[in-house]
Fold this sequence. Notes:
The protein is mainly alpha-helical. It has helices spanning about 1-30, 35-40, 45-55, 60-75, 85-120, 125-140, 145-160, 170-205, 210-215, 220-240, 245-255, 265-275, 275-305, 305-310; strands at about 80, 85.
Amino acid sequence: MLRYVLNRVALGLVVLIGLAVATFLIIHLVPGDPVRQALGGRASPDQIEQLRDQLGLTDPLPTQFWAYFSNSATGQFGDSFVQNSPVGELVGQRIAPSALLIGYGLLVSLLIGVPLAILGALRPNGVVDHSVRLVATLSFAMPLFWLGLVLALIFGLELDIFPVSGYESGLGGILKTLTLPAVTLGLALTVIVVRTLRSSLLEVLQSDYIDAARARGLSERRIVAKHAMRNAVMPTITILSINIGFLIGGTVVLEGVFQIPGLGSLLVESVERRDYEVVQTLVLLAGATVVVVNIGADILQAAIDPRVRLAGR
């Protein structure tokens, strides 16, 4: 098990190094001068050149990359020269809404998707099964921003149940301000849960050991909960871990729609202002999240099914 985990961690580090290189090169190829953005249009050429020297932007690209990479490896992400504040502080102020939105959206998708998948697997190709798959596919086909606007129009403006913008801390504030964006994100992810878990359950429920459990007189509920779900849930875990990038990208869109001050809105603002340090940190943070979640999913699968560990060797 330890060898399996170390292999996954080593692969994750390679991915993060590649992501750091790609992010650094792409952000430096984006048109626009971040120093002019920070100083404004009235700055003299001498002031612009002086600030560029202070920020190290006149150094060769390999030198700039090494400074960025070595600082990031030690957790020193530098300062935002546009907002004149440490990058770590900016991220710390904005990370809670984004993390809560992702977790809330994932919870919504599981609460909706798992019961629907079980219902479809127990009565395959029936009216309920076809209806569930149709509704789930329609929700996935709708663009996130459009689905969010529709929910805001219905439950925010027409019914006046939830606010359509802003963010409040605390349990009550989170439930009030993040429910609409979380439901939007969860509905888009529900179809993945339904299709993956339903297909896995259909295959598992036709296995010999399930027939043996039925022959012993076990109830269908106990068979599904105790025997079938253990094996059927593994592909769903894999698919959900792969789609963590979709969840992160969805927060960028929804934070703009619902005016949530999270990392997604900070990323958009930083790209517009050419704030190199903030953009590089946020992209690296998103990549690290994807890598960590995928490693966690691999470890969870290996803990559930020892055959995964043997295949990984």
